[in-house]
Design a protein that fits this description.
The structure is a single chain. By secondary structure, this protein is α/β, with parallel strands linked by helices. Helix content is 57%, strand content 15%. The chain is built from 7 helices and 7 strands. Strand 6, helix 6 and strand 7 form a beta-alpha-beta unit. The longest helix is centred in the N-terminal third of the chain and has 37 residues, at 5-41.
Length: 209
């Protein structure tokens, strides 16, 4: 019997996810620890992504601010997806260009001890008619590194320069945009719910409401 497209596609996703499990579980745990310390210290999280990864950035910002909380009065993480303010994004790109989209915002919003999270399929490798991909992410993350902050990178394919510059790099080593984008959301949920569990344990241990 001929293998169906859906069967083959799902097998490829499972293989890629197993590779992440075997090679990047420690990096995911390290990401949880960085975000936990940011939560304890009241630091900001700045999340960047383009295209499909922009929606993942927005989703992750929401989860870090709200989903890690059990009750309405709980403290979430101060998380900001830098793609979300459409008037600011369009004004910045129109006036100053695409490459400065994130670094220019960080010059206003960045606070000491902040954490940057970059989400990119190619991690800054490759190009199209507009030039090299995701250079705005690289500039934004470099801004945070130069300011003394930590950087977490979720990328795919070979990881690209973004994975190399990050303090913690997690790479979905698949040469498929839908596999990479889909598994980035899986990884982001593992991080969020691992963080939620860690915060809950911390509160119980320290008798915090």
């Amino acid at each position: 019997m001929k293998t169906s497209y859906s069967h083959k596609a799902l097998e490829e996703k499972i293989e890629a996810l197993n590779h992440v499990k075997e090679n990047y579980s420690d990096a995911i745990e390290e990401s949880i620890e960085i975000l936990f310390n940011a939560w304890k210290d009241g630091k900001w999280i700045y999340i960047m992504g383009n295209g499909g990864s922009a929606s993942t950035a927005t989703h992750l910002a929401s989860d870090l601010a709200k989903t890690i909380c059990i009750n309405p009065a709980d403290k979430g993480l101060k998380a900001l997806a830098l793609v979300d303010n459409i008037p600011m994004v369009s004004a910045t790109v129109n006036d100053w260009g695409w490459e400065d989209l994130y670094s220019s915002q960080l010059s206003t919003f960045y606070e000491e001890g902040g954490v940057g999270i970059g989400i990119s399929v190619h991690g800054g490798s490759g190009e199209d008619v507009a030039g090299n991909w995701s250079q705005n992410l690289l500039r934004g993350l470099q801004y945070i590194k130069d300011s003394g902050g930590k950087v977490i990178a979720l990328s795919g394919f070979d990881g690209g320069p973004m994975a190399k510059m990050a303090d913690v790099g997690i790479v979905v080593e698949a040469e498929s945009t839908p596999i990479v984008e889909g598994l980035h959301v899986v990884i982001h949920h593992v991080i969020v719910f691992g963080l939620k569990e860690k915060i809950d344990e911390y509160k119980k241990k320290n008798n915090l409401s």
